[in-house]
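In keeping with the milestone schedule agreed at the kick-off meeting, the structural modelling team has produced records for the first pair of proteins. Each record is given below as a sequence line and a structure-token line. The laboratory manager (R.T.) confirmed that both were archived under the project's standard naming scheme.
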Amino acid sequence: MQEAAKKKVLFICTHNSNRSQMAEGLLRATRGGRYEARSAGTHPTEVSPQAIKVMGEANIDISSHRSKSIDEFRDTEFDYVVTVCDHARETCPFFPRAVMQLHKSFENPMDFHGTKDEIMTAFRHLRDEIKAWIEETFGDKK
């Protein structure tokens, strides 16, 4: 019996620095046997140190990730293209080779203000919120 091919998922946010990077890492770590996760940005910059740190606290290493442009994936077939911020949803071009397009808006961690500890707490909350959504959306259906 042949093993089913992994479904391909592309997570998109504006800068590919936080939300989409966390989503890619979380899906790969929790459902990597069933899904091949990637991430990109409409205006990529760099992966934020705070995202790397909070993912490391969850034993998920995204330190080797780099911010990528959605242009790198234009000709790739995806089962799911997921925008994780409203700006990306509004500015992201249509992916004609995507089977399904999903949207889930997560708060922009660059909008978090406060002390260093308060900002890190907000990043942890964001990580946990993305993880719960991934489990609900891509987890085993009962």
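The second protein of the pair:
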Amino acid sequence: MGSRPVPWWRPIASARTLFGVAITAALSDVPAVNFLSFIEAKRDGRILSAAELREIVGGFTRGQVPDYQMAAFLMAVFFRGLSGEETAALTLAMRDSGEVLVFPEDERPLVDKHSTGGVGDKVSLPLAPLLAGLGFRVPMISGRGLGITGGTLDKLDSIPGFKTILAPARISEVVRDIGCVICGQTDHMVPADKGLYALRDVTGTVPSIPLIVASILSKKLAESLNALILDVKFGGAAFMSTRGQARELARAMVRLGNECGTATRALLTDMNTPLGEAAGNWLEVKESVRCLENRGPEDLCQLVLACAAHLLCLTRRAPDYPTARRQAETCLKSGTPLRKWEEMLAAQGADLVAYRRKLAVDTQAPEIREVLAPGPGYIAGCDARVLGEVIRDLGGGRLTKDMCINHDVGVDQLAKPGAAVQTGSLMARVHAATAAAADQAAVRIQRAFAVAPEPPPAAELIVEVIDS
């Protein structure tokens, strides 16, 4: 691909180059801000300029704005909202609060995917090596889970020796040599978002669409992407409970991503039922490997292939979606993505011998309990929120960001909606650290399943595609 023109919205910044990665640093010699005036302006509904929003973000990042004042500003935004122009300016100011990765010129497009989070959502793990096999570069900057939503980095932490924190130069090297990397945000990448999210989390201002858009896109735009696919989930175990809410968020992110020069598309996906047949960090890694071996559950493979196909279309590597889908299927069946996966693991420090030994074992947890069907019929549903809460309580998730997690606990062999069962049929297996935890989890999970005399109507996984 040729070089992209510098868009109108890219702020003036100083840059230095480190082993092929250009790192953009926001200018810091700025006097302290009169922050009260910004709080009052937004409280009263005034539209803030791009320069004012850069001043707000810069002052907060430099420690010139106390948390209590920024919390007041966030609450004003929560109630008053932000215009499209304000949201764009806030997003870009947050992006440029730290390092911005600009990779060396290469014919392979830079692409990524972001999910708003769910239970059993392991799409990133098989998708990144599939995209690398399709001729993309994937600098996938991922996060950790909180509450019932799993985090990609937590799943990868279950792989012996795997390093999720890499220096910018190493990110560039792995992307260049392998085609994909999955790692965490560096200490100097979008620091404004880290501080703002921590405040939002404790001030009741998380569910603000402009603030969500700015948080997600500031990190993705810091990867200097050519194209981005968004998986915006809705349902009982999703951040957005209704399809309408998910659509509103998706449209806002797609619109801003495209305005900022990154070809962006969103999929609205159902998160009332867990994705795949396993939930829990190491169990999801194992299921991701089965997907790369073309043995994965249908819903997981469907979403992985759909994300890849849409990125082929967004980058004009395929003329239409059916052709793109066939390309993705052919690549997955070729075995190349599985090889890319293991190359990525090795490049990020994984002990492949220990990893393969761990894969060969049925479970790493001391206790297993089978969850059996109470009577004959058809699986009508499995409450993903209950399942996520059970895994969290088993130790596989966090209530606070600093909690340690148990990577080996979780649930697998989940029966999917529509499956026929008899009395005593297996509906799930619990992997737990103690006998008491296993017993309690089994009771809760059995109640999460609904068994009906007739099969339920087929449910769509991907219910809508948002282009604008």
